[in-house]
Amino acid sequence: MVESTELIRLQTENEALQQELEETNQGVLALYAELDSQAEALKQASELKSRFLSYMSHEFRTPLGSILSITSLLKDELDGPLNDEQQKQVLFVRTSAQELTEMVNDLLDLAKIEAGRISISPGWFDMFDLFAALRGMFRPIVDSEAVDLVFEQPVGVTRLYTDDKKLAQILRNFISNALKFTLRGEVRVSARLVDNNQVRFSVSDTGIGIPDEMHDRLFEDFVQIDSPLQKRLRGTGLGLSLCKRYAELLGGSVGVESHPSVGSTFYLVIPVSAGVEDNDE
Questions:
Q1: Most-buried pick from 14, 34, 64, 262 (CB within 10 A)?
Q2: Listed residue (170, 184, 191, 192) closest to 261, CA to CA
Q3: Cα 242 vs. chain centroid, distance in angstroms?
Q4: Superfamily of domain 123-271
Q5: Helices and strands: H and E segment counts in the chain
Q6: Confidence bin at 280 (pLDDT 50/70/90)
């Protein structure tokens, strides 16, 4: 009798456990279905955002190009002379159009990256040629009386196998930001071999510096430094975010070391060779 009662109790507990497991399984299946639904919705939203950014960027480029062309004609006084106030107004319109064009181009690049429509085209190139091209690009805009732009000789590496255009775009952004926020002193560009198979590019300045709490957020979309100089020198807030994404496409990473009123160093670390052996040597 006791054994029969115990058996009934065990059977009852087993049935209850099976019922609980079944309900749990149903809950897990429902959760998976909900997660799949949300993932699909997020994917569609991301694709829609990318298409919207791409479409709007293209639509903005044509009228902006027209504005820049017209202001260029006015500035050159091809249709007659302008007085000083008119010259200032034309310059203001042109500067605003250039800033908006930069934002549109950054948004278009961002949309292409998120849609997976940007790929790298690696090839061998000489580091000295890269630095020479960057030096020539920035020479006309550097105020040499206030800021020195110094390119150091690369250390430990002379050639790279990567996408030189993407690399140059990252370095141009770093150098441009450094010059923008350095009123006096120098901006120094360097490259050196690290860990035998990677190159660390550094752009160091003696500018305003960046608070520690901002370091982790600098490479996020639309993040800008809150300072009087930043308010005067407006930007899109996308440049560093794009640098991070381009670096990841190159198999590398970016980072920053900075202290307020001392200066900043933005750096990029990428492989010497993007996953291939040097067959040219």
A1: 64
A2: 184
A3: 2
A4: Histidine kinase-like ATPase, C-terminal domain (3.30.565.10)
A5: 6, 7
A6: very low
Q: Taking the CB of residue 25, how many other CB atoms lie within 10 A of it? A: 10
Residues of each domain in the chain carrying CATH 3.30.565.10 = 123-271
- How far is C-alpha 101 from the chain's CA centre? 17
Mean pLDDT of 193-200: 92
Residue 281 pLDDT class (50, 70, 90 cuts): very low
List the one residue out of 204, 260, 203 whose CA is nearest residue 229. 260
Residues in Cβ contact with 229 at an 8 Å cutoff, skipping those fewer than 6 apart: 181, 183, 208
CA distance 76 to 142: 23
**Cβ proximity of 278 and 197 under 8 Å:** no
Q: Which of 135, 160, 136, 260 is nearest to 210 (CA)?
A: 260
Q: For residue 86, give the 3-state DSSP assignment.
A: helix
CB 132 within 8 A of CB 171: no
State the number of CA atoms in the 13 A half-sphere of 61 facing the CB: 12
By mean pLDDT, which of 27-31, 77-81, 153-157 is the weakest? 27-31
Cα of first residue to Cα of last residue in the chain, in angstroms, is 90
CATH 1.10.287.130 domain position(s) in the chain: 1-118
CATH no. of 1-118: 1.10.287.130
Of 135 and 90, the structure prediction assigns the larger pLDDT to 135
User: Which 3 state secondary structure label does DSSP give 264?
Assistant: strand
Reported as a single tens digit per residue, the pLDDT across 102-116 is 777 777 777 777 777
**b (16+ CB within 10 A) / e for 146-176:** ebebebeebeebebbbbbbebbebbbbbbbb
